[in-house]
Design goal:
It is a single chain. By secondary structure, this protein is α/β, with parallel strands linked by helices. It contains 8 helices and 7 strands, in the order H-E-H-H-E-E-E-H-E-H-H-E-E-H-H. Bound molecules: uracil (URA).
Length: 201
């Protein structure tokens, strides 16, 4: 039965039990990595999917991309423990390569299959503003493709929620060294703007 046809759980804890018990809808992923943070925060951050470290530790954004996100939040004056952090896809999709597990991008179809969970999660969390980190999160929130470059940095409404799109921090890890400083500045400026916008909502 598609997950969207199941009864709506009555609480975030009940939703999380359902997610944790369900089989992955992508290849790989030993466990579901659930969102974490307080209810009714000013900001909720949505990433793509857990990575290798997140899958091992069972927490979102604790690997290299998470460390960058933490640093950017600090620079933007945002306290991570006051935000809610989650992912569009709840399992780590990977391809085994020898001893390593290489991140594999979820397809649009896979993102859409996880979307019902994300929607219900945000219904319970009720952030003032949802920040999509990258194109996969934007697709998950909007239900359609939202190119990051054309849509970043503005207050938007995605599927009825106040939302904001910026880059995924791992984009910074992949770019040539010489381009990183301006991209970092733009990323932290986006986070500052999202934080300021959330105060007015
Ligand atoms: N990248 C994501 O999108 N989410 C995580 O939790 C970690 C890395």
């Amino acid at each position: 039965m598609p997950i969207s046809e199941r009864a709506v759980p009555r609480s975030l804890a009940a939703l999380n039990r359902l997610i944790a018990a369900a089989p992955p809808m992508v290849t790989g992923g030993t466990r579901a990595v659930l969102g974490e943070g307080p209810l009714r925060p000013r900001l909720a951050f949505v990433g793509e999917q857990p990575g290798d470290q997140e899958d091992l530790q069972g927490r979102p954004f604790v690997g290299p991309a998470g460390q960058l996100l933490d640093r950017a939040m600090r620079e933007a004056g945002i306290e991570r423990r006051q935000t809610y952090v989650t992912n569009a896809v709840k399992h780590f999709k990977f391809e085994p390569r020898g001893q390593r597990r290489l991140h594999a991008r979820p397809t649009a179809g896979e993102v859409k299959r996880y979307r019902w969970w994300l929607e219900r999660e945000l219904d319970f969390v009720r952030p003032k503003l949802v920040v999509a980190l990258g194109a996969t999160a934007a697709l998950a929130l909007a239900g359609k493709t939202m190119p990051v470059a054309a849509n970043r940095g503005h207050l938007l409404t995605l599927a009825g929620r106040p939302a904001f799109i910026t880059i995924h921090p791992s984009f910074l890890l992949r770019m040539p060294e010489e381009d990183r400083a301006p991209a970092w500045k733009a990323f932290t400026a986006d986070l500052k703007q999202a934080h300021a916008l959330s105060a007015a909502l």
